[in-house]
Structures are given as C-alpha cells and as structure tokens.
Amino acid sequence: MSNFIEGKRVYLRPFEEEDIITWFDWFNDPEVTLYMNKGVFPNTKQLQEEYFKKLLTSKNDVQLAIVLKENDTLIGAVGIHKIDWIHRNSGISIMIGDKTLWGKGLAEETIAFIVRHAFTKMNLHKVTAGMMAENYGSRKCFEDNGFVLEGMQKEQFFYKDRYVDVYLLGLTRKKWEEDNRRRQKY
Ligand SMILES: CC(C)(COP(=O)(O)OP(=O)(O)OC[C@H]1O[C@@H](n2cnc3c(N)ncnc32)[C@H](O)[C@@H]1OP(=O)(O)O)[C@@H](O)C(=O)NCCC(=O)NCCS
Fold it and tell me: What total of structural domains would you count in the chain?
C-alpha cells in the first residue's frame, strides 16, 4: 500500500478492510468519544463496514487512516467531509484513536497535511472544524494550524449532565497561504 500523504512522523493512506477491526472500536471507547457527538449508540464491525463501503464511492468525503511511521501502526482517522464543490468548502475531522499517543503533536501534524491536501490538491477555498467548548485539545491543534474562531453555537450538544457550547473554527486558503509565507520569512 503506497502512502497517500507522507509526513514526518505519520503518513496518511486509504482505509482498508483489515483496518475495520481496529477502527470500529475507537468509537466504543468512552474516553475517545468523550467530546464527540458519538458513543450513544454502540458501533459495530458491520456499521463500520457499511461506512467503509460508502466512503469508497463518496465524492464528498476524503477519509484517511493515520499511520505511525516508526512501526506502521494504524493510530487514527482524519477526514475532509461534506465537501461543497460549489462553494468550495468542507469540514475537517480528526481522531487519534490510540489514547497512549495523545499530546505528542500528532494531530497537529496530521491536520497540517490534510489542510494542505484540501487547498492544493482539491482546490478548496475554505476548511472548517467544530468542537465542544470543553475539547481544548481539539481546538488547540486546529488553532495551531491557523484556524480562527468564527462563531459559537450555544448549548448545542448534551455533554454528561448539561448542554454545552460548540465552537466553530475556519481557515481560508488566503490566510493559510499568508501564514505559510510568514513562517518561511522568519
Ligand atoms: C483532540 C485530539 C485529536 C488531539 O490530538 P493530540 O495528538 O493529542 O493533539 P496534539 O498532541 O497535536 O496537541 C496539539 C496541542 O493541543 C494541546 N492539547 C492536546 N490535548 C489537550 C488537552 N486535552 N487539553 C489541553 N491541551 C491539549 C497540546 O498540548 C498541544 O499544544 P502545544 O501546541 O502548545 O504543544 C485527540 O485528543 C483525540 O483524538 N481525541 C478524541 C477524538 C476527538 O475529540 N476528536 C476531535 C473531535 S472535534
């Protein structure tokens, strides 16, 4: 299997049928789904297989497996979803399913590659991300990639015993290019 996108510590490749066994169970882990709008209904291998099959023909989603380079282990999933080919925007999702690898900068690195893919290969104009206000890690790894807060949905999701706000972040191609130029300058 060739690496679709090659990074420093991770590479991104398409999901394969043999990944389903690892992939589906991340959504049953209460720690992984803590801040996600998931984990209410159990995920099964069959549901994941159906999702996998849908992805094979979808022209509105790019879902990729995140693999650790040092040992070729599948550690997570990153996606460009709900691609709007007219307005040229999409949402980005990320999950590092292997909890032991959190806090090592892998999500930040992965988002950088998927954003570059969205702008330079798919010719999108803008990418967005949304997360529960409590999901500090998610917000930080998007902001570290230049995303800015554009809005907030009050009490959008039910979390534990209360309704919580959702932050809406966005990044235009223009800002991404300016950020890159600035990074190269200094
Ligand atoms: C959110 C998630 C993707 C972050 O992945 P990660 O690989 O741990 O993130 P990174 O290590 O790249 O962290 C990037 C920055 O966020 C910070 N960060 C990460 N997790 C954090 C947390 N729980 N609280 C505060 N800061 C956090 C890191 O310290 C780092 O900051 P720095 O740039 O100042 O060093 C991961 O925790 C995860 O997959 N969670 C479950 C699924 C999920 O919530 N996905 C997002 C749905 S919107």
Answer: 1
List the structure tokens of 42.
Answer: 């159990």
For 175, the domain range is 5-185
Residue in the block written with tokens 């907030």: 152
CA 103 to centroid of ligand 1, rounded, Å: 6
Strands 162-172 and 148-159: antiparallel
* Banded pLDDT at 1 (limits 50, 70, 90): low
| pLDDT tens, residue by residue, 129-178 | 999 999 999 999 999 999 999 999 999 999 989 999 999 999 999 999 99
Nearest-atom index, ligand 1, CA of 32: 41
The number of residues making up the chain comes to: 186
CATH of the domain at 165: 3.40.630.30
pLDDT of amino acid 39: 81
The ligand 1 site (C-beta within 6 Å) comprises 32, 35-36, 94-96, 102-108, 131, 135-138, 140-141, 144
